[in-house]
Amino acid sequence: MLLLGFFLGLAVGLGFWLWQQVQLNGYLEGVLQPLTSHSHKTELPLLGRLRQEMSMVKRQQQDLQLSLQTYKELLDFAPLGYLQVDEENQLLWCNQQAREMLHLQRWQAGQVRLLLELVRSYELDQLIEQTRDWQKPQVREWVFHPSRENATAMSELKSLALQASSLPLPKGQVGVFLENHQPLLDMNQQRDRSFSDLAHELRTPLTSIRLVAETLQSRLEPPFDRWVNRLMQEVDRLINLVQSWLELTQMETNSTMQLQLETVEVRSLIASVWETLEPLAKLNSLNMTYCGSENICIKADKSRMYQVFVNLLDNSIKYSPPSTTIHIEAKFITAKEFFPGDRHSQILEINIIDSGVGFSPEDLHHVFERFYRGDKARYRSPVSEGSSTTAITGSGLGLAIVRQMILAHGGDIKAMNHPETGGAWMQIQLPGVVANSSRQDYS
Question: Which of 309, 311, 348, 344 is nearest to 433 (CA)?
Answer without folding.
Answer: 348
